[in-house]
Design a protein that fits this description.
Elements lengths: L1 H25 L21 H46 L6 H35 L10 H14 L5 H11 L18 H13 L6 H8 L2 H4 L1 H9 L6 H11 L1 H24 L9 H12 L12 H29 L3 H39 L3 H91 L5
């Protein structure tokens, strides 16, 4: 930006002047070089307006990054859409001498070039933002090895797009005028399996451009745009990365986020499976069968009625199974959280359970007393031994039920006390802290009052000593 360049040029001028003064002072001797920290007659103190300019430039650069990220994601999605159209219509419109596939492929290449330019401009803005944040002069300081590797990988991922139509046109010009049979892609069968596999692989790998979605979510999220979030996060040493934003979104809208991801993943992977299986002429090459196969693979059911035939299809199904296990675990966690009781509901539920268990304990204690009385009466009357054993058996059973209910009540109260212990400890600590603050204030006031009294006593002693000296001088004038 203009203000950044102005500050950079100003710093370079100061450096040149300092270097000239240093050389003239040392007379060209490079052995004893001392760098002057300040120059006479020059103001090198930090100006307050520079921070305002830096904040303004930083805000403008963030807005530019947001716009560039949106344009980059739109260009990537446009290229993927053209690739899907290219793969869907080519088996039906491909004829020798037809230029439709070539035009679509040229459009894909043009969108790929625009995407690469946008990515380079985005990282250029990111480097400018790094310079402003760290107040650096040289842009090469920002070019670390990690940044260079990331930029290179992004360019390599985004440059991938199908180029089989160019080879097909060249081979069609150099070949005879025989009419080739339609193929799944815009490459005829006599061009070779290697070219078809390359076209298929490049078409599938174009979906790697969807990594730009996480960057768009991060730059357009309310978490990153909120000044309160950023200030509190900086105080707690929290980096606002995509992982943090994703956790926030999953905590706020878990079901919505998971549903959108599953639907998008289902449709995308189903189309990739149809693209992989078209050359086999099997039922898995159709979208309806692919949707069914991806669904049962994602849910880890696997009926076995449909199976992929190609290595590409097997790899897609394997990836679908792994993602299905991960999404199932997330779904179980979300359902568990939704079904869990909140704090108030837990207190009500446990309170009612405690009342019910207390009633059952009273009934069990009454049964124990009743069986004891019946056993005692049987001993007094000296009836038959069968009735005596019956009352003994009933007494032991009543004692067992009573003990079981007491143990259950104890466990319930222990669990409730564990729930209440933390709030209780927090309240106790707050009360202790408030008492300590009050006692500290009272102690300060007492110390201040004691200091004031000591000052008054010292003044009184001084006045008394002055009066005594005056009296002594008045009575004995010879004493000085």
């Amino acid at each position: 930006m203009e203000m950044t360049n102005r500050s950079l040029h100003g710093d370079s001028k100061v450096d040149c002047v300092s270097c000239d003064g240093l050389i003239s002072r040392n007379r060209g001797d490079s052995a004893d070089v001392s760098v002057p920290l300040t120059l006479p007659g020059k103001r090198t103190t930090h100006m307050e307006g520079d921070d305002l300019y830096r904040l303004r430039d930083r805000k403008l650069l963030l807005e530019d990054k947001k716009r560039l990220c949106a344009w980059t994601l739109g260009t990537a999605l446009f290229g993927i859409l053209l690739m899907i159209i290219h793969a869907e219509i080519c088996p039906y419109v491909y004829t020798p001498g037809s230029n439709i596939a070539l035009i679509i492929n040229c459009s894909i290449s043009l969108s790929t070039g625009c995407l690469l330019i946008l990515i380079i401009v985005f990282h250029y803005k990111d480097i400018q933002l790094f310079i402003i944040d760290h107040n650096q002069v040289d842009w090469r300081i920002a070019m670390t090895s990690h940044r260079i590797i990331v930029i290179t990988l992004e360019l390599l991922v985004c440059v991938i797009h199908p180029v089989g139509s160019y080879w097909g046109v060249a081979l069609h010009v150099n070949s005879s005028s025989t009419v080739p049979t339609p193929s799944p892609l815009c490459v005829s069968s006599h061009h070779g399996e290697a070219l078809m596999d390359m076209e298929l692989l490049l078409s599938v790998l174009m979906f790697l451009r969807l990594y730009l979605v996480h960057r768009a979510i991060l730059l357009h999220s309310k978490v990153l745009l909120s000044a309160s979030y950023r200030s509190i996060g900086s105080l707690n040493n929290i980096n606002f990365t995509f992982r943090f934003v994703l956790k926030v979104l999953m905590n706020k809208h878990p079901a919505r986020m998971l549903l959108v991801f599953i639907l998008f993943f289902w449709l995308t992977v189903s189309w990739m499976l149809t693209l992989c299986e078209r050359q086999t002429k099997e039922s898995t090459g159709h979208m309806d069968t692919a949707l069914w196969l991806i669904a049962i693979t994602f849910l880890t059911v696997g009926y076995g009625d449909v199976a992929p035939k190609t290595n590409c299809g097997k790899a897609v199904c394997l990836f679908t199974g792994v993602m299905g296990v991960a999404c199932t675990a997330m779904l179980v966690a979300i359902v568990t959280e939704k079904l869990a009781l909140n704090k108030g509901e837990k207190h009500v539920h446990f309170f009612m359970m405690d009342i019910q268990i207390s009633k059952r304990i009273r009934h069990a204690a009454a049964n124990v007393l009743r069986e004891c009385w019946l056993l005692h009466r049987a001993n007094v009357t000296k009836g038959n031994s069968g009735e005596h054993r019956k009352h003994q058996r009933c007494l032991l059973e009543a004692i067992r039920v009573f003990r079981h209910l007491r143990l259950k009540q104890r466990k319930l109260r222990d669990y409730v006390s564990e729930m209440v212990d933390l709030p209780k400890m927090q309240m106790i600590m707050c009360d202790l802290s408030a008492n300590w603050n009050n006692s500290y204030r009272e102690l300060e006031q007492r110390i201040l009052s004691m200091e004031q009294k000591l000052d008054e006593l010292s003044r009184c002693f001084q006045q008394t000593s002055d009066l005594l000296s005056q009296v002594v001088r008045h009575r004995n004038p010879e004493i000085r």
